[in-house]
From TrEMBL:
Domain annotation PAS: ranges: 241-313
Keywords: Kinase, Membrane, Phosphoprotein, Transferase, Transmembrane, Transmembrane helix
Protein name as it appears in the record: histidine kinase
Enzyme class of the recorded protein, top EC level: transferase
Bilayer-crossing regions: 7-28, 57-74, 80-102
Sequence ranges assigned to domain Histidine kinase in this UniProt record: 380-578
Statement: the UniProt record of this protein carries the keyword Membrane: yes
Pfam families reported in the protein's UniProt record: HATPase_c, PAS_3
Domain PAC: 317-369
MF terms (GO), sorted A to Z: phosphorelay sensor kinase activity
Organism: Methanoplanus limicola DSM 2279
InterPro entries listed in its UniProt record: HATPase_C_sf, HATPase_dom, His_kinase_dom, HisK_dim/P_dom, PAC, PAS, PAS-assoc_C, PAS-like_dom_sf
Reactions catalysed: ATP + protein L-histidine = ADP + protein N-phospho-L-histidine
Keyword Transferase among record annotations: yes
Length: 583
């Protein structure tokens, strides 16, 4: 259904056309040819302007009707017919010109409409605040002509509240109210102005803002702005965090380096320079300078760790090695590095930290020397004590033979004899643990170590089921003694056990788990928390205590969580850094 405007247009064209035709026949009957043709311009122009190509076709029909009507009252060679033919061509030409001009006008209106639509869409959706100002009659008076939704959200006003008001009327509730001098400057100079980020606190919505002001060719002033409070607060926190980080680095004496592997450029901090004595310029001029001064036997260790990380088999690379400083001093350093950026499968950027551990290494050597001396002293002392105990035992045996008739004395001698044997057992027990913690932890195969420990016990009536997977654990060299103690504990206190099992797996957090369990009578709930205490138990009271202490040297923990009556279950938890599975 056509709208009323369309109906009115069509009616106007038809009415004017009928009027032209009617007047034509009336004038032709009166032999008047001079005035009535001008009436045809009305429907021809209107139809061509309103309906373009359809209007041109309609004008052609109407002009043909005019020509036929004139021809019916004259001949081909009559002068009036020739005038009518010329006027027919004029009608068609005028219609064509009107169609072309109207088409251009329609295109222009469409373009303007699209531009206006884009402008409105931009104003609605842009995240920046936008205010368009018109110059008022007074100096420094600017009227807010248009604002977008974002401007209201940033400053805390409704669009209709601000539009039509001068900036002065808004007083100082909004941040752009403080920019009159800057707006004046842009209006006069017609040069855009970018205002640095600033904090506005005496406004409705305090915060950080950035502004850009420019003048349109129409004389209007446009202000675009953003609320950068969140970004600025992030920058402040980042700066504070960086300051704390730098302070932490200084307090821990950590050297930091950032190596662009493709260009060879290395950025280092002051502590890095202090460790080696070289300036950043010297290191950048020769990126291989520090590697050249690494001890040859240590360089292989570093290369091995780096190649493993390069092949993505480890999260980072790490090594301790000896190096020579610029002054020629020998130092020990601990380095940890990580490739943080790759390009086409090749490392592009590597960052890391380095620490001078020379003092620690000296302390370790001094401690090893002291331990060796203590072990030597302990061995000599233990040997002397055992000799004395052997002598005492011999005399006790002789004394027991002489006191057989005195039951009271014989009973006391048995107590003394038992105490001496206990002392002898404990002294001999310390021999097995005299090397505890003396050596660096080493990687050991859990399956091989547990099988070896079980074979030393010689339990022929007990089935042993070792773990199936090939797991390795970085632990003290006395790991074998741990399994020995756990298996012996099952044999001594488990009752009629028939099976001992060892299983290994990696949990969801990347930690290693070693489970040692049997099918014996288990451990009562009331003493589970005491079995690892020193002195608890029927023999020396040191077995499980030392088991826990040996594991603790490498940061490994052990607990017992078996069900009483169904066997013991010792669970050993290994940190991720001390655990690996051999493929």
């Amino acid at each position: 259904m056509k709208n009323p405007v369309e109906i009115l247009k069509i009616a106007t064209i038809i009415a004017s056309s009928l009027l032209c035709i009617s007047v034509s026949f009336i004038f032709l009957n009166e032999n008047l040819f001079a005035v009535f043709p001008h009436l045809y311009y009305i429907p021809i122009i209107l139809s061509s302007y309103w309906y373009l190509k359809k209007g041109l076709f309609y004008s052609l029909i109407l002009s043909t009707i005019y020509l036929i009507s004139v021809f019916s009252y004259t001949t081909y060679y009559n002068e009036m017919f020739i005038h009518a033919l010329i006027r027919y061509c004029v009608f068609i030409g005028i219609s064509l010109v009107v169609v072309i001009l109207a088409g251009k006008e329609a295109e222009l209106l469409t373009t303007v409409s699209k531009s206006d639509s884009r402008f409105r869409e931009l104003m609605t959706n842009i995240s920046s605040g936008v205010c368009i100002l018109k110059k008022g009659k007074k100096d420094s008076e600017y009227i807010i002509d248009k604002t977008n939704l974002s401007a209201g959200q940033i400053e805390g006003f409704l669009t209709e509240e601000a539009e039509g008001k001068t900036i002065a009327e808004l007083k100082t509730k909004y941040s752009f109210s403080h920019l009159i001098p800057e707006i004046n400057s842009v209006f006069i100079s017609e040069k855009p102005l970018k205002i640095p980020v600033g904090y506005y606190n005496n406004i409705k919505n305090p915060g950080w803002r950035d502004y850009y002001i420019y003048k349109l060719s129409s004389g209007e002033i446009v202000i675009t702005f953003n609320d950068v409070t969140e970004l600025k607060n992030t920058e402040i926190k980042l700066a504070e965090s960086e300051e704390r980080f730098n302070l932490a680095l200084k307090s821990t004496n950590l050297g930091v380096w950032d190596w662009n592997y493709s260009t060879g450029n290395i950025e280092i901090n002051d502590q890095y320079s202090k460790i080696y004595g070289y300036t950043p310029e010297e290191i950048n001029n020769d990126p291989e300078l520090l590697r050249k001064n690494i001890f040859p036997e240590d360089k292989e260790l570093l290369n091995k760790s780096f190649l493993k990380h390069l092949s993505k088999k480890s999260d980072y690379y790490e090594a301790e090695f000896r190096n020579i400083t610029k002054e020629g001093h020998l130092i020990w350093v601990h380095i940890i590095g990580k490739i943080v950026k790759w390009e086409s499968g090749r490392p592009l950027r590597i960052i890391g930290i380095i620490m001078d551990i020379t003092e620690r290494k000296r302390d370790q050597e001094a401690l090893k020397t002291a331990n060796k001396k203590l072990n030597l002293l302990s061995g000599i002392t233990r040997h002397d004590i055992l000799n004395q105990i052997t002598g005492a035992t011999l005399f006790l045996e002789l004394l027991r033979d002489e006191c057989q008739e005195n039951s009271r004395a014989a009973e006391n001698l048995d107590i003394i004899f038992s105490a001496v044997e206990k002392i002898q057992e404990q002294i001999e027990f310390t021999k097995d643990y005299q090397n505890l913690g003396l050596k660096e932890p080493v990687w050991q195969n859990v399956r091989e170590i547990s099988c070896k420990s079980f074979s030393l016990l010689g339990y022929e009536n007990i089935d042993f089921i070792p773990c199936r997977n090939s797991f390795e654990i970085l632990a003290d060299a006395m790991l074998e003694k741990i399994f020995y103690n756990l298996f012996e504990n099952s044999f001594r206190h488990g009752g009629n056990i028939t099976e001992i099992r060892v299983s290994c797996f990696t949990d969801n957090y990347g930690k290693g788990k070693i489970i040692v369990e049997d099918d014996g009578r288990g451990i009562p709930e009331e003493i589970k928390d005491e079995i690892f205490d020193r002195g608890f138990g029927e023999n020396t009271g040191l077995g499980l205590f030392l088991t826990r202490e040996i594991l603790d040297i490498s940061g490994i923990t052990i607990t017992e969580n078996g069900i009483p009556g169904k066997g013991v279950r010792f669970e050993i938890t290994v940190p991720e850094r001390n655990w690996r599975e051999l493929k």
